[in-house]
TrEMBL record:
Residues 1-24, 44-106, 195-217 are annotated as: Disordered. This is Uncharacterized protein.
Length: 217
């Protein structure tokens, strides 16, 4: 079994930024947290270190150490190609046993905060209110994370995000009209351009969403 964090490591974890989970400490100390799967090193400059969801749980006192649960994903890589975390697109089997409740909400929150930090570090102007290049190459995951982070429910009674033939656009389908409006508001608040369309042949309506470019006026 992996040993629980040392006193020094706990001090670093407890001093992490409460919103983004960004860590400060010596390179050796931070590398030790990475080995314990309590932190990860951001792949882009300035290569800052952040708590993983497991690290967040240790910080909040709900886990005694990394051995208490399978390692969680890095926040900034939440929608990342690692596959450790995936925002709900609404097409997954329901229910997802053991994936509901406060732990899921905490992981989604960490993922979203990490994505906002990725925006800040990779958008040329440091904007957090506009999608970054990574989101433009992972449209379905990025849109799903924005919706889930905003509290929109996925699945048969909620949203379903899917690809479209159009470049840089995803389709969001929701059974109830009020749910469609809620998803549109959530995506717009997350920096996406949204328009409403009717299925062909005429039937249910859906959203076409794409990452916004440039600053709002």
């Amino acid at each position: 079994m992996t040993k629980p964090p040392t006193a020094a490591q706990r001090r670093i974890i407890e001093a992490a930024d409460p919103a983004t989970g960004r860590l400060t400490g010596s390179e050796a100390q931070l590398a030790g947290l990475v080995r314990h799967r309590l932190a990860f090193r951001h792949p882009r400059p300035p290569h800052a270190y952040f708590l993983t969801p497991t690290g967040h749980r240790v910080r909040e006192g709900t886990e005694s150490g990394p051995a208490a649960e399978a390692p969680g994903p890095p926040p900034a890589a939440a929608p990342a190609p690692s596959g450790l975390f995936a925002a709900r697109t609404g097409t997954e089997p329901i229910p997802l046993s053991g994936a509901e409740g406060p732990a899921r909400a905490r992981d989604v929150r960490s993922a979203w905060e990490g994505l906002l930090e990725m925006r800040r570090m990779t958008n040329p102007d440091g904007a957090r209110d506009r999608p970054c290049a990574w989101e433009r190459t992972h449209l379905v995951q990025a849109a799903a994370l924005a919706l889930e982070a905003a509290g929109c429910p996925p699945g048969p009674d909620g949203y379903r995000v899917g690809e479209t033939p159009q470049p840089e656009a995803v389709a969001v389908r929701v059974a109830a009209p009020e749910g469609l409006r809620a998803c549109a508001s959530a995506l717009e608040a997350a920096g996406w351009q949204v328009s409403e369309h009717a299925e062909r042949p005429p039937g249910a309506r859906y959203l076409l969403a794409s990452p916004r470019r440039g600053q709002r006026h």
